[in-house]
Design brief:
The complex is a heterodimer of chains A (352) and B (328).
Chain A: H1 2-10, H2 12-29, H3 31-34, E1 55-57, E2 63-76, E3 81-103, E4 107-116, H4 133-169, H5 171-186, H6 189-199, H7 206-236, H8 240-247, H9 252-260, H10 265-288, H11 300-304, H12 310-315, H13 321-344, H14 346-349
Antiparallel strand pairs in A: 1-2, 2-3, 3-4
Helix pairs in contact in A: 1-13, 2-4, 2-13, 4-5, 4-7, 4-9, 4-10, 4-13, 5-7, 6-7, 7-10, 8-9, 10-13
Chain B: H1 2-29, H2 34-39, H3 46-56, H4 62-74, H5 88-123, H6 128-142, H7 145-159, H8 177-215, H9 218-225, H10 230-242, H11 244-255, H12 262-267, H13 273-282, H14 286-314, H15 316-327
Classes of the chains: A alpha+beta (352), B mainly alpha (328).
Amino acid sequence: MKEILHYIKKNKFAYTSLYVLGILYFLAVFADFISPYPFDLQHRDTPYHPPTQIHFFDREGNFHLRPFVYGYRLVDPVFKRYEIDYSRKYPVYFFVEGERHYLLGFIPTSRHLFGVKEGRIFLLGADHLGRDIFSRLLYGGRISLSIGIVGVLVSFTIGAIVGGISGYFGGKVDNILMRIAEIVMSFPGFYLMLALRAVFPITLSSVQVYFLIVIILSFIGWAGLSRVIRGMVLSIREQDFVLAAKSYGASSLRIITRHIIPNTFSYLLIAATLSIPGYILGESALSLLGLGIQEPYASWGNMLAAARSISAISQYPWILAPGVAIFITILSFNLLGDALRDALDPKLRKNL
Amino acid sequence: MFLYILKRLIQMVPLVIGITFISFLIIQMAPGNYLDQLKMNPQISKETLKELERAYGLDQPLLVQYFKWLINALTFDLGYSFSYHVPVVELIKERIGNTLFLSITSAVLAWGLAVPLGIWAALNPNRWIDRFIQLFSFTFMSIPNFFLAFLLLFVAVKTGIFPTGGATSPNYDQLDFWGKLLDRLWHVSLPAFVLAIGSLAGLVRLVRSAMIEALQSEYVMFARAKGLPERLVIYRHAFRNALNPFITLLGFEIANLLSGAALIEIIVNWPGMGMLMLDAVLSQDLYLVMGGLYIGAIMLIIGNLIADVLLAKLDPRVRQREVEGVLK
């Protein structure tokens, strides 16, 4: 583990990505405290409000120690065009009183990291119901960021166990398990995802949908991994320590889970880091089509669903913000996974 | 070679049966069926419903339904679509051309650019062009392609250089042949570009590392030592050896021609298989979904077969092991 960290520290891209991911997960965990508004609070009078810039200097060039935002006036209610009203200044306060929430799920408080006492603050603008996109982005991160990790954990557990059993026992068991894996791998992935989603009713509670998405993505994802693990196990099972374990009478299950799979750990770690983006994308794709996380709950995918209307993208481009968040997350995981591969797989390091 | 192909085809049969049977099970697991929607309609009598049930074979046990479907599917009779009331084959025929046109255009774009760029980067490791290509591939590998589609749609609306939906202009029928071709290419450009960028980014990295590995090998050193011109060293020795994994990849590419573009098709309103399948799944159009998955499986078989044959043609080691081994 120490060695891994050492390699990551040497690679400045990977080190930065580790920090970026740390910040993203931190923001998601403390979303209710950091975001100025709850994810479902609607401001019906300000649909598609543009992002409010934070100012230190007013129009006359006077410096204000306390940053402020200007008020906005709706000038065109049909096309939702706004104009800055320079006469109204709203100072931004820290630890401001707002909606009540439970920090970390159990500490009741109504303080928010920042906010305005009057007027509105929309760092990334508002959506069609006047909900703050910045707040929804943080809450959506909870779903989008965690689904990658949960999905990978589930499918890698299945993949490692199936691959381990298949490689260790060989013969008929191997044959049957690998044929099944082959069949799952041969499905057109996207169609399979749609078909599996259709097995369950469209209207489910958001917790159910969350786990449903994990199950669907894991169902598709375990097969490829189990084949690779099987190949590795084939060579590991011939080694002396496996023979030693057998000779003192360890059960097959114990040998697979305690001796063989831990030896594939470094590969699993690399593969897991590089697979998380796939799960995040899978969730986004389902939610984007309206088959995943349902309103009013936010996920990066279902926030982007608003961008499916071409006129909305062209007039209110800030609704694309979740896409940028997805991009940053995936880029970080890719850079990190690449650095891990270089660190743990010396054969590949030579070439790059 | 013929025997080899035959052997490969026979190996695929259980795969097709497995895929279709699992899809059948999945769709049957879905609550209710298409007729449930009709039952809500008071204008449709019980007798008509019974009639329909019998006509579609929905009153028979699962296995019987499946085998009936499978036997018909072998002759490309994929049954009737419940919601469109036309044979599934007709529907797929209508859409498959558009999807293939889009995927093939984007695949040609991606491969046509990835191979030269990858070689270029591999020949100048760690120079600016290599770094630029690496940066490009890393960035675009990480941009979700639906997000790229949104960004390009935004550009398209703002500038009007791309059309924003559909496969043809409204006045398509009045155009002459070249006009039609241009119109199609113009409409395909945006989604094809989105899809191509994504796969180009991944491919270029692979080409680069495969080429670097080949260039470091001893046979390349030997070819250089005996004084072959650099061009021959690169293209005849290094490149041909670096090619093998890409032929397998090409097989995957062919297998993915149908479903790989589905999400982008839905986003940019491209009248292809993606939309059709989404609708079919949502309305539980059993035979339409099955048809889509079946055609997908066939594409996979064709893709794998082409890859295997090409690999045997190009690599004497594979040929010896696989093809001549069969004949003995």
